[in-house]
Write a structure and sequence with these properties.
Layout: H1 2-18, E1 21-27, H2 33-44, E2 47-50, H3 51-61, H4 64-74, H5 81-95, E3 99-103, H6 109-119, E4 125-130, H7 133-143, H8 148-175, E5 179-183, H9 188-199
Parallel strand pairs: 1-3, 1-4, 2-3, 4-5
Helix pairs in contact: 1-5, 2-9, 3-4, 3-5, 5-6, 7-8
EC number: 2.7.4.14
InterPro entries: Adenylat/UMP-CMP_kin (IPR000850), Adenylat_kinase_CS (IPR033690), P-loop_NTPase (IPR027417), UMP_CMP_kinase (IPR006266)
Subunit structure: Monomer.
Length: 208
């Protein structure tokens, strides 16, 4: 066990040395954050890390860790924050980049506190794609033609879970002045124009 702890400490130390710029990307299902993350990667050269994708890749790898994650998901348990955070840390180090979009994480207040405690990294800011529930429903249903009735309940459930678990995270960072809220109900192009403003460094004001 000692060597595992040591390895984790090394990862944390190596990452802390890089002083990475981390942006948490939050938004409900259908808020269009995936599309916008792809745009940010292309224009601003961030590395996009999706917590869900990393967990799925770990399961697919067939590792001991992956099997444990798969069993927890099967049993309807929540994967511990530390497991997801370790995968994020590993991906951050392996990417060679120092600018990251972390998508779909932290999902709740416990995730948030654990991320800062384990990595010693505070996010630069939180990009929050705010989209009304009706608009998200409309988008998700138009994606899933033909299965509308059984989907509407699932969609509403996902939205409710997002609100209950993620809003405390957003409120926490709002109090620190770290939330950049984007009106995600607009067309994709307009949304990205608003995103660009957030990511474009403000021109340095020259003081006389």
């Amino acid at each position: 066990m000692g060597t595992v702890d040591l390895a984790n400490k090394d990862v944390t130390a190596s990452l802390a040395e890089k002083k990475p710029k981390v942006v948490f990307v939050l938004g409900g299902p259908g808020s269009g954050k995936g599309t916008q993350c792809a745009n940010i990667v292309e224009h601003f050269h961030y590395t996009h890390l999706s917590a869900g994708d990393l967990l799925r890749a770990e399961i697919k790898s067939g590792s001991e860790n992956g099997t444990m994650i798969q069993n927890m998901i099967k049993e309807g348990k929540i994967v511990p924050s530390e497991v997801t955070i370790k995968l994020l840390q590993k991906a951050m180090l392996e990417s060679g980049n120092d600018k990251f979009l972390i998508d779909g994480f932290p999902r709740n207040e416990e995730n948030r506190a654990a991320f800062e405690a384990v990595t010693k990294i505070e996010p630069e800011f939180v990009l929050f794609f705010n989209c009304p529930e009706e608009e998200m429903e409309r988008r998700l249903l138009s994606r899933n033609q033909g299965r509308e009735d059984d989907n509407i309940e699932t969609i509403r459930k996902r939205f409710k879970v997002f609100l209950e678990s993620s809003l405390p995270v957003i409120e926490y960072y709002k109090a620190k002045g770290k939330v950049r809220e984007i009106d995600a109900a607009k067309p994709v192009g307009e949304v990205f124009e608003a995103v660009k403003v957030v990511f474009t460094p403000k021109a340095e004001t020259v003081t006389a």
